[in-house]
Amino acid sequence: MKILTKAIKEKLIANHKEQDGTKEFKAFLKLFNPTGIGTWYLSELDPETNNAFGLCCLTDEEFGYVNLDELLNFKGQFGLGIERDKFFKPKSLEDCKNKN
To answer: Domain of 28?
Structure first.
């Protein structure tokens, strides 16, 4: 399965370009590690650096940036990489808290 569809990538980039500092956009992409910890709810993507902003849930939940190149190159147990939740519906980052 493709991690970033064209529509999702365009929406994340549009959110980045429209950002006014409030970080109030909805998460449009949920990524997860199928063999361990790690869930990311992403709302923005800087196309120049490939850094995405969102709610990053590892041992704690925190808002911040993650580099998509690093995520997509990660291989966990059994050689499995990060996956996209294809059933995820856009929601506010606050609504994503404590949901993983």
So the answer is: 6-86
Q: How many domains does the chain have?
A: 1
Query: What tens digit of pLDDT does each residue of 21-76 get?
Result: 777 789 999 999 999 899 999 999 999 999 999 999 998 999 999 999 999 899 88
Question: Is residue 37 one of the residues assigned to a domain?
Answer: yes
* Spatial distance between the Cα atoms of 40 and 27, rounded to a whole number of angstroms: 9
* CA pair distance 100, 90, nearest whole angstrom: 15
The pTM for the full model equals 0.91
Residues in the chain: 100
